[in-house]
Design goal:
The complex is a heterodimer of chains A (506) and B (103).
Chain A lengths: L1 H9 L14 H19 L6 H29 L2 E3 L4 E3 L1 H28 L5 H18 L3 H19 L6 H32 L4 H10 L6 H18 L7 H8 L2 H26 L1 H28 L4 H22 L2 H28 L15 H4 L1 H15 L5 H15 L3 H27 L13 H19 L2 H12 L7
Antiparallel strand pairs in A: 1-2
Chain B lengths: L6 H21 L3 H26 L3 H30 L14
The chains are: A mainly alpha (506), B mainly alpha (103).
Chain lengths: 506, 103
């Protein structure tokens, strides 16, 4: 007993890391915003109006973006820092991804408000889950430790599994939830096994320490590490839906409530690619690039080709957009594959541009889907140019941007990624990527032609456009055009952000 | 002759459990069994972490296990809720029945 007391006395001071609260402010705002919203609606008597939740969510996400600005200044002035004893890193890259995730929360919240009203669903849970999920995404983007990457991924994913299955009356929504859940859990296990093997090979899960360890140690038996890299690639590959790990994506995108699909396509993709880039390019880039690049190159080829070709054979627009997002993932992967500063900047630029393109496109799909969220067939778009000329125009601009037509964000996003790939010696892949872009352009033009030239059977439907959804579409079109016509500011930010993607030690 | 149980035995065991889980998830069609397979995979990872932690003489790997346990619990809660929601609508749980969407 006395021994026990002595031990207790001796271990009185457990060293706790200094917490720099200001550095994690955006994440804290998102998380506390979600928890507070849940608390407020439980405490307040009676039902709060539906718009309250949306306004709250948008304010929280805006506050998080505002919190990013001083941090960005700080990082620009004094360089990247590691926070929470090296568990998180504060650098330009993580801050830009944070802001992107917040933007997609704002856009998805606008869509959700209109959607829930139309579907006669309600409740704050949708918004709470979205905020918590976003906080997981931010954790992933700022993670400087493989375990933190995993926890961020789970916070992000678990909330989205629920969101996918939230539409009570649509069976396909629950099917999407189940499919996403099973494959998500499967992929998490792969990621985690990869982390375990990497830990065994390098002796740490901290990215800075792994990088330092690999820089001054020559591992003779590196089977463990290579296995770890491969397993982690499978895990991330499932999350970003790289072929051959893409099977879940069309089903889940089609089945989920459309605003949730918009959130998945933007925030989840951005967060997963951010983590992928930080682990593979920043941590293993300097020493193990030659090992993972051929593997990633093969995945890129498959993703580009399969995404483009499967998209053309679809007749469901929501499914087409899901396959086209696989093709887009191939382009982003091209930026990761370049493993250079230019590649990182291009990846970031693509993720931001894609956020506007995808959120806007799914906004149109949500509106055209009408009550029940089921009218997603190509024939439902016939004659849209006559019944809703504005909506058809918005969709056309967004689709052309996805196809990569000049003066839109999509063109520059593709251009930067291809330039980075060529610079790193992947000319053949860049050529292939351009060919697949032509193939998917055919698919986008098919939708446009259907809207403008196809004769509708009977009277064309006139979908209602709620104000909130209209606002979201407007923001996306403005974003796509502004980035396309004045790309300077965003590309400067992307370049500044990338130059600081340096893993920092404790 | 006594058999020495070195670290690699545990690693191989963990790899085998992981493989059983992975194959099971792909082969079995009952969502509940699929859950169990995921749990098997996660616990194989835990065993790997603990073994490496012991071999490297580093406590970090054991700390990870706690995080994994919490995450696994959270996942099960969500997964079971989704299954219950589906079971309310139809009899029996079979992943093959849940296939409205194809293509």
């Amino acid at each position: 007993m006395t021994g026990f007391v002595a031990v207790l006395a001796a271990t009185e001071d457990i060293p706790t890391p200094d917490v720099d609260w200001s550095a994690i402010a955006p994440n804290l705002i998102l998380m506390l915003g979600g928890i507070l919203l849940l608390t407020v609606v439980s405490v307040v008597r009676g039902r709060l109006p539906g718009w309250f939740h949306a306004v709250w969510t948008i304010s929280v996400a805006t506050a998080a973006i505002v919190a990013v600005v001083p941090l960005w200044q700080r990082v620009q002035d004094s360089g990247p820092e590691s926070v929470l004893a090296g568990a998180l890193v504060l650098d330009g890259f993580s801050l830009v991804v944070t802001a992107t995730i917040c933007v997609s929360v704002i856009l998805a919240a606008l869509l959700l408000e209109a959607y829930l009203r139309r579907e006669r669903l309600g409740g704050p849970e949708w918004y709470v889950l979205m905020l918590l999920s976003a906080s997981g995404g931010v954790t992933m983007a700022t993670a400087n430790d493989l375990v933190v990457v995993f926890i961020g991924l789970e916070i992000l994913s678990v909330a989205v599994y629920v969101l996918a299955a939230m539409h009570r009356r649509r069976v396909s929504s629950q099917e999407a939830g189940l499919k996403y859940f099973v494959l998500g859990a499967f992929s998490s296990a792969f990621l985690l096994y990869g982390i375990a093997l990497t830990y065994g090979a390098t002796g740490s899960t901290n990215l800075s320490r792994i990088q330092a360890f690999l820089a001054d140690t020559v591992i003779t038996q590196n089977a463990l590490l290579l296995g770890g890299l491969a397993f982690m690639l499978v895990g991330f590959g499932f999350k970003v839906a790289v072929v051959p790990f893409h099977n879940w994506k069309p089903d889940v995108y089609q089945g989920s409530p459309t605003p949730v699909t918009a959130f998945m396509a933007t925030a989840v993709t951005a967060a997963a690619f951010a983590a992928l880039l930080r682990v593979y390019v920043t941590t293993f880039g300097p020493t193990y690039r030659t090992e993972w690049q051929p593997l990633v190159a093969a995945l890129t080829v498959l993703t580009l080709v399969v995404g483009a070709f499967l998209a053309i054979s679809q007749t469901n627009v929501k499914r087409m957009l899901a396959y086209s997002s696989i093709n887009h993932a191939g382009f982003v992967l091209l930026g990761v594959l370049a493993a250079s500063a230019a590649g990182d900047a291009a990846t970031l630029f693509y993720l931001v541009a894609y956020t506007f393109m995808a959120a806007g496109s799914f906004a149109v799909v949500a509106v055209v889907g009408r009550r029940g969220d089921g009218h997603h067939d190509l024939s439902d778009y016939q004659g849209l140019s006559r019944s809703r000329p504005g909506l058809a125009l918005v969709f056309t601009i967004l689709l052309l941007s996805q196809a990569g037509v000049p003066l839109t964000a999509g063109f520059l996003a593709k251009f930067y990624v291809l330039a980075a790939a060529v610079e790193s010696g992947y000319t053949w892949l860049a050529v292939l990527a351009m060919l697949t872009a032509v193939v998917s352009a055919f698919m986008y033009l098919r939708i446009v032609v259907t809207m403008y030239f196809a004769e509708p059977e009977g009277e064309p439907r006139r979908p209602r456009i709620p104000a909130a959804a209209g606002l979201a579409m407007g923001l996306c079109v403005v974003g796509v055009l502004v980035i396309g016509i004045v790309p300077g500011p965003l590309s400067d930010v992307a370049n500044d952000a990338v130059s600081q993607l340096v893993a920092v030690g404790r | 002759m006594t058999l020495q149980l070195t670290g690699s035995w545990y690693l191989v065991l963990a790899a085998m459990i992981f493989a059983i889980g992975a194959v099971g998830l792909m082969v079995r069609r009952n969502p509940l069994v699929m859950f169990m397979c995921v749990e098997l995979m996660l616990n194989a990872v835990n065993l790997t972490f603990v073994t490496f932690s012991r071999l490297l003489d580093d406590v970090g790997g054991q700390a990870v296990v706690f995080f994994v346990l919490v995450v696994a619990a959270a996942e099960v809660v969500v997964g079971l809720a989704i299954i219950v929601a589906i079971m309310r609508r139809r009899q029996g749980a079979n992943a093959d029945d849940v296939s409205l969407m194809r293509g």
